[in-house]
Each structure stands twice: as structure tokens, then as C-alpha cells.
Amino acid sequence: MDFHNILIKWYLRNKRDLPWRKTVDPYQIWLSEIMLQQTRVAQGMPYFFEFTKEFPTVKDLADASEEKVLKLWQGLGYYSRARNLHKTAQYISNDLNGVFPDSYKELLKLKGVGEYTAAAIASFSYNEIVPVVDGNVFRVLSRYFDIETDIANPAAKKEFAALAQELMPKDSPAIFNQAIMEFGALQCVPKSPNCSICVFNDSCLALKKGKVNQLPVKTKKIKVSNRYFNYLILEDALGNTLIQKRTDKGIWHNLYEFPLLETESIVDFDVVSKNAKEEIFPSYTIIGIEDCAASTLVHKLSHQHLHIQFWKIKIKEKIENGVDPEKLKTFPFPIVIYKFIEKQEIIC
Q: The HhH-GPD domain covers which part of the protein (predicted)?
């Protein structure tokens, strides 16, 4: 079929120069694929270089502390990826003697590795004939073949994987998978693609039918909840503060934060003052509370919008085991808190 020939020819002319395309090392490919989940290439690239420099082998990653891994991951978001990455590295290093599984079926058994990532590693590292199906692939195939299947439906992946398998040249699965993903990322983009220069503009059914902007079909809506975080930044006479690790499952698990007052809505000074004095810091003598109003923001995650306020609370006593401003920066924080610290807005 002409589809794969045209696609691969386009790819060889237009592909980006990406470091993980210059290797068949499953460790580096796995690392890149985990990093690029929910992340743009431009954002993920510096992290890839930093991780491969700090942890050149899977054993190096396995031997690191989780805190160090989370610190290097800081700002990349979806931190469960980093925790799973670390646990999987330990499993490969300790239980598999540092050797990656060499098949799609076995790769699927790794923590944090789903069908897409397993297919990517299996095809790119071992040239296994297995198709990758991500958002780019859904988009390219649904438009080219005018497929109206709702991609939010779990059965859709099986349908599109079967089609991709049929189109895939059996002697070059790796390059086909790279090509179709790259085509979706660079040419067949989600909004307003330039179809006039597309190599498929004489055969794409969606273009012929004027349906390019209607495909792929995705009806499932993400329900977004609102949460209200008030971070209380304790400060003693020495300038030291208090932080805590988030141990509950959920967002930012095992990252650090300031003491948190979570409320049902945005609250004022009186509510924060009352809670700080009576509930959160009853053993300290509070001599001043300031609202760092300039730092109030809404931090948008995929399923949650976090309305964040920072409050500086000065106390009379010395904080036992307090953290000084320099040491503070060495802990892994959610990026929204780290940026606040970095700008030295603790001084409000």
C-alpha cells in the first residue's frame, strides 16, 4: 500500500533530530517515552538530558533515592510517572539483573508501562511488529480513513491498533511507528493543520469530505474539580521555616510543601488567622500574619484546579528542626511552590 511508503518518505525528510532516536537502548527509550507522556518534546528534552547524565544506566537510577529522582523531575508534572520510573528501575536492576524485557508482552508487566509505551520500546529497541497507538495515531488514521469511532471508547484502541498493524510494513515497524507519530505531531496537528502542503491531500477522506476539524471524535469530558489551598509559611527570628512531606496518595505524593490549610472556598485573613492560632500552630506565639496576595494563583491540573494562596506567619519561638532558605531549595517541591520560593516571595 502507498500509505506507508508516502509516510516513511515524508518522515525521512522532515523528522526532528531527537536523542532517543539515535539509540536502540531500551533504557533510554523507556525513559523518553515515560517523560513524553502528557508532555511536549521541548519541555521534556532538558529533563531527558539531565536524567541520562545523572543516571546513565538503569542501575544508577535504581540506586538513587526517590527524593533525588523527584527533585530532578521537579516541574515536569504528573509525579506518579517519576515514582513508577524509580520503582521499575529497581525491579529491573534487582530482579531482572539489569536486563530489560525484550518483548511487548513482557514489557507490559512493568509498573507504569501501558500498551503504548510497551509497543514503543518493543518496536524501537527490538523491531517487534507491534503498532503504537497514541493521540497522534488516532488523529492521523481517523482523518485519513474518515473513522468516526469515539476514541474515548476503550474499544477504539483495539480498532485503531488493528488498522495500524495492517498498514505497518513488517520489515520496518520501528520506522513506521516513528513516522506516523511524527506526522501527527508536525503535520496532521489537532487544530487547523495546513492540508495544502500535506503529502496525503489527494487521498485523505476527511479532507475530501470537509471533516478535518471534526476528527477524531472524542465525546468524553473530563470533570474538573476546584480545590482551595492556603500555604502557611512559618518564619522564626532566624529566617527558618517549616515544611512537610505529602504522604497521602494523590497529587504531589512524596513531594514537600509548607503546612497546608485546605478550605472549601477562597478564605480571608480572619479564617486563616483563627486556624493558624487554634488548630495548626497552637504551640507557637504568632506575632504577625501577612497575605502574600501578589502570589495568589490558579494552578491547573488535568482533573483539578488548585486555587493557591500563600500566607507568611511570623512567630516568636525558634522552630525546632527548621529549614533555612538555602536548604529549602534542595527539597523536591511541586513546581508552583518552588517558583514561589525561588522568587523569594516568602518575604511577601
A: 35-186
